[in-house]
TrEMBL record, chain A:
Belongs to the bacterial histone-like protein family. Heterodimer of an alpha and a beta chain. Transmembrane segments: none annotated. The lineage of its organism: Bacteria, Pseudomonadati, Pseudomonadota, Alphaproteobacteria, Rhodobacterales. It comes from Oceanomicrobium pacificus. The gene is ihfA. This is Integration host factor subunit alpha.
UniProtKB/TrEMBL annotation, chain B:
This is Integration host factor subunit beta. Signal peptide: none annotated. GO terms for cellular component: chromosome; cytosol. Keywords: DNA recombination, DNA-binding, Transcription, Transcription regulation, Translation regulation. GO terms for molecular function: DNA binding; structural constituent of chromatin. NCBIfam families: hip, PRK00199.1. The keyword Secreted does not apply. Belongs to the bacterial histone-like protein family. The keyword Zinc-finger does not apply. One of its GO terms (biological process) is regulation of translation. It comes from the Bacteria. It comes from Oceanomicrobium pacificus. Heterodimer of an alpha and a beta chain. InterPro entries: Hist_DNA-bd, Histone-like_DNA-bd_CS, IHF-like_DNA-bd_dom_sf, IHF_beta.
Length: 100, 93
């Protein structure tokens, strides 16, 4: 598996190459995509992107947790968590691309 | 929200862009992430989350219906971890 991490900058660069916009505007558009997805999720909506996957927000009940180091019981507040379910296409492509 | 609604929101904010260009931008965004992961890369979007690839070792599975042992090959699966900012936003009072 090759090393390397992509960031917003790499996605902006890809948008810049794909569409004839300035680098600045490409970066702003990448930011808008992230912002709209975040806002929908914060509003409790799920975000479904065909052939990519689904982000959904789940509510978790309060429970008693434990500090694994000390064994001390600590209350865990009810909270919302985000889960991502990759599409079949994403799973297939990621698995195929990483075969050794 | 589905992808076409995401595209529409961005198109509404950018009336100077053609709808088809907004579609290409949004598709490129997602395509680039899948492409990177299929080359074994991680994609880190600070504040939103990070996509990475996890290796699952080969194992002996069982057909739950018949109980027969089946060999499951090693595989690589996509994984997403929510970023701190978004995690906090989901839980702000």
């Amino acid at each position: 598996m090759s090393e390397g991490t992509l960031t917003r900058m790499d996605l902006s660069e890809a948008v810049f190459r794909e569409v004839g916009l300035s680098r600045n505007e490409s970066a702003d558009l990448v930011e808008s995509v992230i912002r709209h997805m975040s806002d929908a999720l914060v509003n409790g909506e799920s975000v479904k992107v065909s052939s990519f996957g689904t982000f959904s927000v789940r509510s978790k009940n309060a429970r008693v947790g434990r500090n694994p180091k000390t064994g001390e019981e600590v209350p865990i507040e009810p909270r919302r968590v985000l889960t991502f379910r990759p599409s079949h296409l994403m799973k297939e492509r990621v698995d195929a691309g990483n075969k050794s | 929200m589905i992808k076409s609604e995401l595209i529409q929101k961005i198109a509404d904010e950018n009336p100077h862009l053609y709808q088809r260009d907004v579609e290409r931008i949004v598709n490129t965004f997602f395509e680039e992430i899948i492409g990177a992961m299929s080359e074994g890369h991680r994609v880190e979007l600070r504040g939103f989350g990070a996509f990475s690839v996890k290796k699952r070792n080969a194992r002996t599975g069982r057909n739950p219906r018949t109980g027969a042992a089946v060999h499951v090959e090693e595989k690589h699966v996509p994984f997403f971890k929510t970023g701190k900012l978004l995690r906090d936003r989901l839980n702000e009072k």
